[in-house]
Amino acid sequence: MQTYNFTLTARFEGSASSSNTTVGLTAVGSELVAMVTGPSGDVPQSKGKVTFKAGSSYDPDDVLNVMAPLGYAWSCQVSADNVSIGM
Predict the structure, then answer these.
(1) Which of 42, 44, 69, 76 is most buried, taking the most CB atoms under 10 A from its CB?
(2) 9 exposed, middle or buried (CB, 10 Å; 0-12, 13-18, 19+)?
(3) Number of domains in the chain
(4) Among residues 42, 40, 84, 33, which one has the least CA distance to residue 63?
């Protein structure tokens, strides 16, 4: 979040008398949009390799991805054995 303060000063030309007012605005960023592509459902173990891609994820406030590249963290949970594997 970033806060910006704007001040308006009103006065008659040639007069030292003036009046000020200030308004504060807070810029709030949007939530990131995580998108993943890859297989879903049952995948045969014999394939040995499963590939997921997250390159379509984006920041709605930076659609061209010029402010900062997105980073990714993956995790996997094997639900049959209740084992969590961090990657």
Answers:
(1) 76
(2) exposed
(3) 1
(4) 33
Question: How many whole angstroms from its chain centre is CA 13?
Answer: 47
Higher pLDDT, 2 or 23: 23
For residue 25, pLDDT beyond 70: yes
Q: What pLDDT sits at residue 80?
A: 63
CA dihedral (54, 56, 59, 60) positive or negative: negative
pTM of the model: 0.52
Q: Which two tokens stand for residue 32?
A: 């990131």
Domain enclosing residue 71, as ranges: 2-86
